[in-house]
Amino acid sequence: MKTTRRHFFRNMGLLGLGAAGISKTNLLHAAAEPVKLKGSVKFEIGVASYGLRGLSFEEMVEAMKMLQIKNLSLKSMHLPFELSDDEIKQRMEIMREAGLNPYAPGVVYMKSEQEVHDRFAYTKAAGMGMIVAVPNYELLDLVEEKIKETGIKIAIHTHGPDNLPYPSPEDAYERIKERDPRFGICVDLAHVLRSKLDPVQQLMLTKNRVLDVHIRDITEASKEGHSCRPGLGVFDFRASLQALIDIGYEGFVSIEYEAEKDDPVPGYAETKGYINGILAGL
After folding, report:
1. I need a surface site. Which of 14, 38, 142, 198 has the fewest CB within 10 A?
2. 14/10 Cα distance (integer angstroms)
């Protein structure tokens, strides 16, 4: 049975919201209130759907509509790799008819040549122009060939101190700086801080290759740091947002709120409102 918005958000606890310490009225105001951005702000807010991983595809679409955020980077639980091309196109049509802009799959891991070919074909079938990806180092030549063949951009996701490739934006930059300009970086600002690096410095060092950005607050600037409500952690939103303005960034700044897997929408709404408040004051 199709989930209605009221049924879904009743189940998600958004018609009560006592635990979050925020009223429904204030939550919806934070999520929906437009901000008057200055002309120097060229980026748009988006969502990385990994943070909505506890929701079904239909619930994720309803959450995006409630949040009034249209830009979406899709994790594979919401657009599975196993779908046929027709099934992929059907889901993309559902999202676009709901007013959403699914701009990239991600984060997508590429650990073999076959996975490189498959993920580019998947992205092409979906009609998206970029992949937020983690290709193994030895596959970079092949990935660059596929970029030139398809015109699909690659934004290498940086994953901090978690023993994965590309621990920092600078590491990714050094590996692609002489490659096709459509080969860029998705700077995950929280992971940068978890590596005890300066997010602003990393943005400045890699500014001509930044194609995507992930943002959220975290509890501490260490490997143990984890997602938390905005303003309760150590991430300096103002400094990083100002840096993105200063480098003329024109892509998406996607919220990837990872806490409260089964009830993530209040945290996303608060983060959006927090970001909008800062941008309004810049």
Report:
1. 38
2. 6
What pLDDT, on a 0 to 100 scale, did the predictor assign at position 265? 97
Q: How many other C-beta atoms are found inside a 10 Å radius of the C-beta of residue 236?
A: 16
Q: How far is CA 50 from CA 34, 112, 141, 214, in A?
A: 24, 23, 28, 11
Q: What is the pLDDT of residue 282?
A: 66
Nearest C-alpha neighbor of 218 from the set 203, 243, 246, 196: 196
**In CATH, what is the architecture of 5-281?**
Alpha-Beta Barrel (3.20)
What per-residue confidence (pLDDT) applies to 281? 80
Burial bucket for residue 75 (CB in 10 Å: 0-12, 13-18, 19+): buried
User: Which residues have a Cβ under 8 Å from the Cβ of 72 and sit 6 or more positions away?
Assistant: 46, 47, 49, 64, 95, 100, 101, 102, 103, 254
pLDDT per residue over 41-77, tens digit each?
Answer: 999 999 999 999 999 999 999 999 999 999 999 999 9
Three-class secondary structure of residue 174 per DSSP:
helix
DSSP result, 120-170: HHHHHHHT-SEEEEEE-GGGHHHHHHHHHHH--EEEEEP-TTSSSS--SHH
Structure tokens at 58: 């239909």
pLDDT < 70 stretches in the chain: 1-39, 282
Pairing type for strands 227-228 and 217-218 reads: antiparallel
Count of all residues that appear for the chain in the document: 282
Interatomic CA distance for residues 118 and 224, integer angstroms: 34
